[in-house]
Amino acid sequence: MDLKDKSLFIQKCFIDGHWLDAESKEIFDVMNPSDQTKVGTMPNCSKKDTVKAIEAAKKSWNNWKKLTGKERSIFIRKWHNLILENIDDLALIMTLENGKPINDSKAEITYASWFTDWFAEEAKRTYGKTIPSTMQGRRIITIKQSVGVCGIITPWNFPAAMITRKVAPALAAGCPVVIKPAGSTPFTATALVELANRAGIPDGVINLISVSEKDVANVGDELCENLNVRKISFTGSTNVGKILMSKTAGTVKRVSMELGGHAPFIVFEDADLDEAVIGAMANKYRNSGQVCVSANRIYVHESIYDEFSNRLAEKSSQLKVADGRTEGSQIGPLITPQAFKKVEEHVEDAVEKGAKILTGGTNDNSGVQFYKPTVLTDINNNMKIYYEETFGPVAPIIKFKNENEVIEMANDTKYGLAGYFYSRDIGKIWRVAEALEYGMVGINAGVISTEVAPFGGIKESGIGREGAEEGIEEYLEIKYLCFDGVEK
Ligand code: SIN
Questions:
Q1: Which of 57, 119, 196, 353 could form a disulfide with 176 if both were Cys (CB 3.0 to 4.6 A apart)?
Q2: Whose CA is nearest to atom 8 of ligand 1?
Q3: Are strands 462-463 and 254-258 parallel, antiparallel or unpaired?
Q4: Other CB atoms closer than 10 Å to residue 195's CB: what's the count?
């Protein structure tokens, strides 16, 4: 691997300040989704390794939580600086294990660093309240304290940003963490942890355990069921989120769940069409469509349906599909053969039921897991693609007649993560923004992720918010203090 700093490529887990193998010495392979070559191996950790990591985290808690917010902030700021200094290496590692184009990987490392920047500041602002008492002689205040050891379970689609979006607020609040990165993208995570270690974050405060997808329950169950873990933060599918929630119930843990989405993207008849096409392209093809806030149902008013669809198809057909290391690559591979198969099935099912392919609709000859950017029209609600998250570079376009109808269609899903719409009518903008049943709404904006706004969903898309001032609250408990006898 052509890294400037070769010591950033680490194939071990990290417990109590030490890079270790699994106790069993078992390992698993991590493959490059672009060419199916082996990137490296990672320890296949067991319940025993997980318990060791949890105990190390617990031991570190007392000292870490007693630091001032400003002291913790200094560590997070150093980590932030090291992330940016090593952006090229981190991006290359990410492209090799995730497949995303190198420019997208660099953009993700920058995105990841926004959270270390933001939460280094928020560490100093975990304010409590003074509450006017209703009884003479009493004073009431609240203070905020760290939750305790947090289990951080992160996905493969954003191997860096989902770690910093969870770990930076946890550290800022005073919580130690045990990170379990996705089995398919552990090396971005180990590199980030190495940089945290170089930033001087004390032993035990950050731990990382890896496990293959097939054995994931060995680690996941322990994180969810161990009494010493006081919170689980997870980003991933709604199905897995439900399993984790049921497993955490036995010890009544705090949870943050950032789960699946099925975003509507509505283009009204009064929209700026150029902007709507740009927004749809940026949204749909980010990370080859493997994004939980990606548009999965593009609703276009009947008066502009053909024009919008043709323009989107033309631009989609111009995207460069290639190995993420190739200069100018814009669309990388799908993460696994199963992910590729799902995309293929959704397109086949739609076509069988009457959809038309304007562009794409087949695999790309860059490799066996590459799918061409695809635009489908004549989509209806009998098709799988209408109700299920595709997680690929496929843009299904649905025709609508009026505002009420499209809002009803957009809300007709169990998901509620992100929604988008384009309009220039201020009255309609307010009405639609309020009517969409989603945690986040982009208005004339196709990409809305930022560290300063609360990211999260409603309905089966999750619980809790990440980023923003809300993000640190997920790692804090509120304690109410009542002082009596103040006046004699
Ligand atoms: C995700 O897909 O899980 C996160 C996307 C984002 O943060 O923008």
A1: 57
A2: 449
A3: antiparallel
A4: 24
Ligand 1 pocket test target in 114, 293, 448, 461 with most atoms within 8 Å of CB: 293
- Note whether 454 and 475 are within 8 A (CB): no
Give the CA distances from residue 215 to residues 85, 346, 458, in Å, rounded to whole numbers and listed in that order: 35, 28, 30
For 205, counting Cβ atoms within 10 Å of its Cβ (0-12 exposed, 13-18 middle, 19+ buried), the class is buried
Among 97, 222, 258, 389, the active-site one is: 258
pTM above 0.85, yes or no: yes
Establish whether residue 375 lines the binding site of ligand 1, counting it when its CB lies within 6 angstroms of any ligand atom.
no
Which tokens hold the place of 293?
A: 């806030």
Placement of tokens 């203070």 in the chain: 143
Q: Please tell me the distance between residue 479's alpha carbon and the centre of ligand 1 in angstroms.
A: 32
417 close to ligand 1 (CB < 6 Angstrom):
no
b or e along 313-343 (b: 16 or more beta carbons within 10 Å of the residue's beta carbon)?
bebbeebebbbbbeeebbbbbbbeeebbebb
pLDDT for 1 equals: 80
Ligand 1 centroid–CA 235 distance in Å is 9
Residue 357: how many other CB atoms lie within 10 Å:
18
Instruction: Report the C-alpha gap between 327 and 316 in whole angstroms.
Output: 18
Residue 339 has a pLDDT of 97
Give CA–CA dist 368/320, Å, rounded.
Answer: 16
The backbone region for 251, taken as left when phi is positive above 0, alpha when psi lies in -120 to 50, beta otherwise, is alpha
Tell me phi and psi for residue 422, to 5 degrees: -120, 125
Atom of ligand 1 nearest to the CA of 258: 3
At 380 the pLDDT is: 95
Q: Give 1-25 as a DSSP string.
A: ---SSGGG---SEEETTEEE--TT-
| CA 239/CA 292 separation, integer angstroms | 14
Ligand 1: does its nearest atom lie under 6 Å from the Cβ of 421? no
Contact between residue 284 and residue 294 where contact means Cβ atoms under 8 Å apart: yes
Question: What's the CA gap between 93 and 35, in Å, rounded?
Answer: 15
Mutation pick for ligand 1 pocket among 98, 108, 157, 158 (CB with most ligand atoms within 8 Å): 158
The neighbour count for residue 486, using CB atoms within 10 Å, is 10
Q: Strands 177-180 and 18-20, how do they pair?
A: unpaired
Within the chain, what is the greatest distance between any pair of CA atoms? 84
Atom of ligand 1 nearest to the CA of 294: 2
Q: Provide the pLDDT for residue 266.
A: 99
Any idea what the Cα angle at residue 255 is, between residues 249 and 258, rounded to 5°?
A: 125
Ligand 1 in contact with 291 (CB < 6 A)? yes
First-last CA distance in the chain: 73
Q: What pLDDT does 488 receive? A: 80
User: What atom in ligand 1 is closest to the CA of residue 449?
Assistant: 8
Catalytic residue among 97, 194, 292, 451: 292
CA–CA gap between residue 95 and residue 330 (Å, rounded): 12
